[in-house]
Design goal:
The protein has 267 residues and is mainly alpha-helical. The chain has one domain. Helix content is 75%, strand content 1%. The protein has 13 helices and two strands; from the N terminus they run H-H-H-H-H-H-H-H-H-H-H-H-E-E-H. Helix 4 runs parallel beside helix 8 and helix 9 runs parallel beside helix 13. The protein is globular and about 55 Å long. It starts with 7 loop residues before the first helix and ends in a 5-residue tail after the last helix. The relative contact order is 0.14. Keywords: Membrane, Transmembrane, Transmembrane helix.
């Protein structure tokens, strides 16, 4: 078992060491998702594009980009991806939430600055500054609440990291090693954006979304500020609720989770 961190700062440093160590799972996920959404956004045929993106506006590109970069293994599989630390922490609420928060913060540090920089560069090009500020608020603030709720998936349905070769060799156990696993790696792409959109609804009403043109009509500073305040409030609420529900789920499922996390062969 790995040594458990004594502080949130140490937990974040541990997550960074894991992220930059072979097989670089988190970095691969972030990079591949960024490439995938960029290619689909700018180069996909219209029929494919309409299936993937409900909203398609240059001003909103970085919000979608960030959402996809957050949407994968690091967002949902919060327990089984690091059993050497999560297993001994399952009886300690503070330690469990510390580990989960460290994963969110690490993912945020790897995604938010890059997407914010892209947003600023697009702002210089498009001169839609209010919209770009809205995008930055969504990218920088919202993920904490979104990821706190998305983590419930990894408590209800964790899965052990396995290579594609391993899963193919064990394909006779088609439900656990193919169907269940395949569903859980695809689920975040729909779930994380939906959670983010729900948390963002109050702000979108203030920012006045023009659906027929698929743009945000933020025309005054008070509207901008009020929308950002609502983002902060919804994020804080989402984070608190996310952590509380996560711990209650762990308490109720501790025996099942312990058994599953102790046996990687369960898929």
């Amino acid at each position: 078992m790995a040594e458990l961190p004594e502080s949130l700062g140490q937990a974040v440093r541990d997550e960074f060491r894991i992220a930059f160590r072979y097989p670089y799972t988190v970095l691969q996920v972030i990079f591949l998702n960024a490439v995938l959404v960029t290619v689909l956004w700018y180069f996909a045929p219209p029929k494919v594009d309409s299936l993937v993106f409900d909203i398609h506006s240059p001003a909103l590109f970085t919000i979608v980009l960030a959402g996809w970069m957050y949407s994968d293994v690091p967002a949902t599989n919060v327990l089984a991806s690091d059993t050497s630390r999560t297993l001994p922490a399952l009886t300690d609420r503070t330690m469990t939430l510390r580990l989960m928060n460290a994963k969110r913060i690490t993912l945020w540090i790897l995604v938010a600055p890059v997407c914010t920089l892209i947003t600023l560069l697009m702002g210089f090009h498009n001169q839609h500054w209010f919209t770009e500020l809205v995008a930055i608020a969504s990218i920088v603030i919202l993920p904490f609440g979104t990821l706190a709720i998305a983590g419930w998936v990894g408590i209800l349905w964790p899965y052990h990291p396995r290579s594609l070769n391993y899963r193919w060799r064990h394909r006779r156990d088609w439900f656990h090693d193919l169907v269940r696993w395949g569903t859980l790696i695809v689920l975040p792409y729909g779930l994380v954006p939906i959670i983010g959109a729900v948390l963002l609804v109050p702000s979108l009403l203030v920012w006045n979304v023009k659906s027929e043109r698929q743009v945000l009509e933020v025309t005054t500073v008070p509207h901008l500020v009020l929308g950002v305040i609502l983002v902060v409030g919804m994020t804080i609420g989402g984070t608190i609720v996310g952590d509380r529900v996560a711990w209650r789920l762990i308490e109720r499922r501790r025996t099942v989770l312990t058994h599953y996390l102790e046996h990687p062969e369960l898929g």
